[in-house]
Structure formats: C-alpha cells, structure tokens
Amino acid sequence: MQLSIAIPSANCSYLEMLSHLHCRPATLLTFSKSFQIYRRTKFPSSMASISTVSTEKAASSNQDQPTQKTHLPLQVSPPVPASISAQFQDYYILVRCCVGLSKFDSSFRFFVLVCWHSLKWLNLVAKRLEKFKTTIFTQMSMLAIKHGAINLGQGFPNFDGPEFVKEAAIQAIKDGKNQYARGYGVPDLNSAVAARFKKDTGLVVDPEKEVTVTSGCTEAIAATMLGLINPGDEVILFAPFYDSYEATLSMVGAKITSITLRPPDFSVPIDELKSAISKNTRAILINTPHNPTGKMFSREELEIIASLCVENDVLVFTDEVYDKLAFEADHICMASLPGMYERTVTLNSLGKTFSLTGWKIGWAIAPPHLTWGVRQAHSFLTFATSTPMQWAAAAALQAPDSYYEELKRDYMAKKAILVEGLKSVGFKVYPSSGTYFVVVDHTPFGLENDIAFCEYLIKEVGVVAIPTSVFYLNPEDGKNLVRFTFCKDEETLRSAVERMKEKLIRR
Fold first, then answer.
1. pLDDT tens, 65-91?
2. How far apart are CA 419 and CA 422, in angstroms?
3. pLDDT higher than threshold 50 for residue 62
4. In CATH terms, is domain 136-155+402-503 a member of 1.10.10.10?
5. Confidence check: pLDDT of 32 > 80
6. Domain Aminotransferase class I/classII large: where (predicted)?
7. What is the mean pLDDT of residues 3-24?
8. For residue 345, which phi and psi values (nearest 5 degrees)?
9. Is the fold of 136-155+402-503 the same as that of 163-399?
10. pTM listed for this prediction
11. Poorest-pLDDT segment among 49-58, 98-107, 285-294, 321-330
C-alpha cells in the first residue's frame, strides 16, 4: 500500500495545518496520545525496529531464489531541527522515519499525519512553559468526578462561607457597585486589610501606598515575581511548594534554588540554607503555615532566615493565606520581625479563612518601594479585581474574634477525624500544625510511587489525594508522600475513611 496522504513540510504554517486537518487543536492532542499508545503496542521496540524495516520477497514467486531483504532507505536518526524541543525529538524522529515507509496500515498513516501536525502545534508553546502540564489539582478533581470518588485532594471546602459576607456581596451588586474598581483596590477593602494587619502584627501600614488588592493570592504571587524579579535572579524556595511558585518564576526567567524540607517534622535545614544563600540571591519565598505539609515555621527558623536576608540584602516573599488556620502555635508574620518589613512582601487572601475560594480576593502588603513593582505588574495582569466581592471582603475582615475562634475549633475537629482515620487505615501520618492539609507516607500499601498510589486510590478505593512529587524540583523527593485535605464536612471525611478501611490493603 502506497502512502496516499501527503505529509506536510516542516515549514507549514499553523493555519495551513488547521485547514489541512479540518480539526481543532484540542483534537490534535487527543490523536497525539492515541499515537503514542499505538507506537507502544504496534512498534514496541520503537526506533530500533523502524530503522531496520525490510520487505521480504514472497518465496512463492521464485522457489529457487533465497529470500531477499531489501532495507528501506531510512536513517536511524534523521536530523532534528533545532526548533524541536528535547522532549519531542524522539517523537519527531519516529514520525519522519514513518514517512519513508511504503507499507503500513491506513490507520497508522493517519496517525502519522495527525501527529506530525500536532508536533508542530505543540512546539508553539513557549519554552519556559513546556515542562508544565495541567495542574495536578485539576487532574485529580476531574478523575474524582469521573470515578465518583470523594475528593480529599484539592483544597476547596464543600461547605459555604458565612452568610453575612455573602449578603454583603449581594447588597454591593444591588447598590450598583459593578464597574471597574480602582486598580489597587476599593478604599474600604484596602483600609480593612491594613486594620487587620495592624491587629495581627502590630505594624501600621498605609492602605493607599502599601496595600494592593489582587485577584486571589496566586495573582499577588505572580505580580510580586513579575514586578520585583529580573531574568537570571536567584530565588530560593522550600520544597515541597505550591506549584504556582515554580511556574511563575519560570515565566519570569528566574534561577530557582530549592531547599527540601524532610519528614517527619519538615524543619528547615539551616546549614543547607546558609550554603545556598549568597549575594546572588534576590529573594526567598516562604509559605507559613505551609502547604502541603502543614508545617509552621518556628520563630527560631524565621529569625535565622531574617538575619541571613539582612546580611545578604535579600528580599522575602511570604505566602500567609493559612494564617488563621494555625492550630498548635501562633502564626508569626515575617514582616513583624526586626528589620524585615522594609524587605518583605506579605501575601494573603480571603478564600481560605472565609471558605470563599471562588471569589479570588487576595492582597499584597509591602513598603512603597516594593509595592510600586507589585502594582506595575498587577496593572497589566488583571488591572482590577471584582468590585462587589471587594466590598464584601471589606465586611468579612471586620468579623469579630469569635469568628476566627470558631473557625479554628471547627477545623481542629475535622482534622482529628481525618488524622485518626488515616492512622487506623495504616498510613504513617506526619504532624500538621496549620493549614487544612495533612501529609502521609503511602508506602505501607506497596505502590511504587505517589502517582501510582493516588491513581489506585481514586479508581479502586474511591478517594482522592494529591501526589506530592509535583511539589518538588526533584520528584523523587516526594514519591513516598501524598496529601489529604480536611476542609470538608464531617460526614464526607468519615465516608472517605470508611472507604479506605474497606478497600485499602497493606502489602
């Protein structure tokens, strides 16, 4: 069978590709995955078998002559254009080799065509983002829906926020507060953030010059990185870390240095940090209370980090979205330590404390010389955040102390249900002093790594957890750990524990 479909040249344009295939880019990705499966099953030895493809003359055509093998004119490794990224080079070689074959089935010809086009499309992704995939939270939540699993993976509550905050949002909408807000926040919210910060830390900040309202803390993180970090600047992270840190720093072009926090207590390896920090370090990014481990940085650890930052003229970015979910010790804000406010950007949000994660209201607090950079980036990211939700957030931040006390009691009860349940199932559970997460060692159940375990847990047990290897620069560091969340109602937590007791078997 001769090749009847013309393979496009390597220089075909994106529009030519689409017009030739008559399908959408998303379809190309689907076919690409199918192609990879086809390759593994049909051509298990991949390049080796393709590079020695032969045709045998049928013996029946001439019984007196020996069977002849005619090798097709294929290169073992066709030259790969420099524009093809490293992770796609094998893919490129396979497709280009297949183009030279004169005999293969029609479905394979079709996959060659589709995958060649798909390869071209995938290569349009900016190199700084090539390594990043759909976030693990999205992947696991989609699997939860597909398999009817209880989602103890993604950190969003399955219960609603307080009525007085929702009513404030409704009232703001009815009052016509629905147009663009001032770029750095409606005045009432800026003032409310400053007032809460003073109450929590004792620091007085100017709401007009030192508070910037953003679309969630994730945008505050992005605006801070984009506004204050230059390409090539070194930023130190503590692994495991919230996945947006690495992605945002990659977009900035920063050099990322990772210091690994290890179980059982995930303490900061001070000597390693001292060796890592230098005059080339631009900033350290801290998350306390810490996602995913639940660790709270101790005063001693924060003071050592602070002294190193002062000594080496390093900035500190602190993600403190779980500051009101500190169970076993008081939260310490890095900016409140002596000499640190002038070099610190404090990042926070409404969602975790008020169970309103979908509102995406966050903020950054920093001295004017740092706020300027944050606001410059924010202006060209989102410019402004939802106006009625900002007015409601201002009302939320005026909640009495009793609200936070009840919140902590409620979460401590939920935590107890999950932690005791996980221990009874057979997990090794590590201490969690803050956040609404707990990390466990899954190895008693015999799966090779965290991803394999989480897939088994979803498909066979019906419970979702998050594999922690995605939170490390070196995934091997997290392969034995998975994260569960307890920001769910008590019935859901008990149901998840019961499923694990019934179906998880230690090996």
1. 444 444 433 334 446 666 555 555 555
2. 5
3. no
4. no
5. no
6. 150-499
7. 44
8. -110, 120
9. no
10. 0.78
11. 49-58
pLDDT in tens, 453-480: 999 999 999 999 999 999 999 999 999 9
CA dihedral 337, 340, 345, 351 (to 10 degrees): 0
Q: In 427-438, which positions are buried (b, 16+ CB within 10 angstroms) versus exposed (e)?
A: bbbbbbbbbbbb
Phi, psi of 194 (to 5 degrees): -65, -40
Buried b (16+ CB within 10 A) or exposed e, 160-185: ebbeebbebbeebeeeebeeebeebb
Q: Could you give phi then psi for residue 361, rounded to 5 degrees?
A: -115, 115
Q: For residue 289, what pLDDT is reported?
A: 98
Q: Where are the alpha helices (DSSP H) in 104-215?
A: 106-122, 136-147, 163-174, 187-201
pLDDT in tens, 336-394: 999 999 999 999 999 999 999 999 999 999 999 999 999 999 999 999 999 999 999 99
Phi then psi dihedrals of residue 22, to 5 deg:
55, 40
Nearest to 497 by CA among 408, 448, 429, 409: 429
Q: Give the domain ranges of the chain.
A: 14-51+71-125, 136-155+402-503, 163-399
Q: Which two tokens stand for residue 355?
A: 């169970």
Which residues, 6 or more positions from 310, have their beta carbon under 8 angstroms from its beta carbon? 339, 340, 343
Beta strands at 281-287 and 255-260: parallel, antiparallel or unpaired:
unpaired
Per-residue pLDDT, 37:
53
Q: What is the DSSP letter of 129?
A: G
Q: In sequence order, what are the beta bridge partners of 258?
A: 237
- What percent of the chain clears pLDDT 90, i.e. is strictly above it? 69
User: Helix, strand, or coil here: 281?
Assistant: strand
* CATH 3.40.640.10 describes domain 163-399: yes
Cα separation, 496 vs 492, whole angstroms: 6
The number of C-alpha atoms within 13 Å of 441 and in the hemisphere containing its C-beta is 10
> Which amino acid makes up residue 95?
V
**Dihedral (CA of 419, 420, 423, 428) sign:** positive
Alpha helices by DSSP H, 351-489: 351-354, 368-381, 387-396, 401-425, 450-456
The enclosing H or E element of 246 equals helix 243-252
